[in-house]
Amino acid sequence: MNITEKLINTHELVLIGRDDAVGYHGIIAIHSTALGPAVGGTRFWNYDSEEEALTDALRLSHGMTYKSALAGVPLGGGKSIIIGNHSTRNRTALLRAHGRFVDTLNGRYVTAEDVGTSPADLEIVRLETQHVAGLIGRSGDPSPFTAGGVFRAIQASNQFLWRTSELSGLIVAIQGCGNVGYHLAKLLHGSGVRLIVSDVNSENLSRVVDEFGAEAVAPNEIFSVQAEVFAPCALGGVLNDETIPQLKVQIVAGSANNQLLEERHGAMLRNSSILYAPDYVANVGGVLHGCTELLGWSDEQAQAKIVAIYDTLLKIFQSAEEEGITPNEAADRLAEERLKQSERPEDRN
Q1: 3-62+74-125 — its CATH code?
Q2: Is 79 a catalytic residue?
Q3: Where are the beta strands (DSSP E) in the chain?
Q4: 56-71 pLDDT, tens per residue?
Q5: Which of 58, 126, 207, 342 has a CA 20 to 30 Å removed from the CA of 12?
């Protein structure tokens, strides 16, 4: 049984959608609705194959379930994919087709933005379905809030290792200077952190260098720079057999989803004396802010939850140390406990 088959077996529902009239090819994966309707963004990406896209959707939706569980949010985990080039000319038609696909689930899944999509794109999706969050004029762009959560994760990691949440004087290497990476760089720069950054997009890179005095390095060099913290803020799978031996940091805390290529890479980080802040704990800030739209929270409620990421991570780090396990294993156990508590008694047998 390969990884895709294993992941499918943990999901409530996986759908493949096509609309040949406009060239739409999409996937919706719902991991769990135990805590509430499944929420997760739409990723618009040019995958090499449907299987690659499916595996990504399954991993991302699984992470969304655990993200909400650990944050104490009454939402489940899902994810959707539009397979193709997001710069295509018929983008509007594809987004509307995706909206129709989402609408077939009648609110069991609520979509939002992700890699390759924006709040403006969601307005197009909304023409076909009401089951959309992160809209312009409502909760909007989640990036600053995701970055705020990662900032708290870096503070918590610093506190656990060095008994201070003060970041001034640290060097942080950020991989990916897109929306979240930019806002994280802004927060860190304001706290007196020196930045080393990389991005495949030269405009994104230049903006962070020019505004925050960051040092730019080539994408393949970011793993080996000397720093205290490595913050992956691009795509997943960046912590693997090839990259982990290159790291010269004490902390990994970033916004990218599924940073570990495989679960065993959490142990590899631990064996290298690198503290790992599990991604779905650190990057939940955008989801928490989205609760102002989804659940009617006030801005103050959402911000308090984002601030509390710090305490959640300290609890996870302490549990991992006491039990002799990795932080990702400790986070998984805590999430699974909370999901178990949500089950009805008859479902536990």
Answers
A1: 3.40.50.10860
A2: yes
A3: 13-19, 24-32, 38-45, 76-83, 109-113, 171-175, 194-198, 215-216, 229-232, 251-252, 275-276
A4: 999 999 999 999 999 9
A5: 126
